[in-house]
Amino acid sequence: MKRLSAVLVLAALAAVAGVEAAEVPPRVTVVYDVSHNGTVAVEATETLEHDAKTYRIASEWRGKGLYALARKGSAQRSSTGTIGEGGLRPNEFKDRRGDEPMSVARFDWNKHQLLRERDGKSESVPLPQRAQDRLSFTWGFMFAPPSGKDIEADVADTRGLSHLRYKLGGSERLHTPAGDFDALHLVKQREDGDARTTEIWLASKANYLPLRILVIEKDGTRIDQVATRIER
Fold it and tell me: Are 85 and 17 in contact (CB under 8 A)?
């Protein structure tokens, strides 16, 4: 009887996770303007596709105006993996900037290792239990809405692994070219030696879609990514 109860509990959890994934549109595209100190420099297009079990996020950045002429005026990134009770679980993250070779981060959950391949070199480091990549972290809130007061995550890319902690800054009305939204505001907490400020706004009534990401560097440089169009 105890074994049967445990099976039923696991089945119920799986059903809940499936319903939550099914509530997210199978395909969502968000187009962003990315400004550098107030001047729009890049148009970014990010697309999430999923079947409630697996997902793929594709991101393409293209320079606008003078930035379109720069060697690194474009970038392509992607994240693929599975969807479970805890949200997105990445298997592979790819990153290519300008005409540089593709860099890859592979998440080996069986061996608990993160394998990074970049500039013709590879290295393996321990993989935290709930690690994310740069794309699955921001888009993952659509499948695992933020809760509590703090959000902690180990975020990996092809260059390194960072432990991040965000505080929920409350709800506010966010005005964007894509429309006006009720948004949940997340603010990254600085650790020792971290001089970068990062803030994220999620659409609280639209599956916690990422609407805006603001990064302020140590020297005051502002990189502001704001949604201009949403396609479902």
Answer: yes
Task: Reduce the DSSP state of residue 176 to 3 states and report it.
Answer: strand
Which residues are paired to 217 by β-bridges?
none
| Residue 106 CA: distances (Å) to CA of 55, 88, 121, 175 | 15, 15, 14, 37
Tell whether the model's pLDDT for residue 12 goes beyond 70: no
Distances (CA, A) of 88 to 13, 79, 165, 219: 15, 10, 18, 34
Nearest to 127 by CA among 161, 167, 98, 153: 161
* pLDDT tens digits along 170-186: 899 999 999 999 999 99
Cβ atoms of 192 and 185 within 8 Å: the answer is no
Options 2.60.40, 3.30.360, 2.50.20, 1.25.40; which CATH number does 2-99+130-231 get? 2.50.20
Share of residues in the chain with pLDDT > 90 (%): 73
pLDDT above 50 (res 121) = yes
HSE-CB at 51 with a 13 A cutoff on CA atoms is 4
Q: Name the token pair of 45.
A: 């297009």
**The amino acid at 87:** G
**pLDDT tens digits, residue range 193-226?**
677 899 999 999 999 999 999 999 999 999 999 9
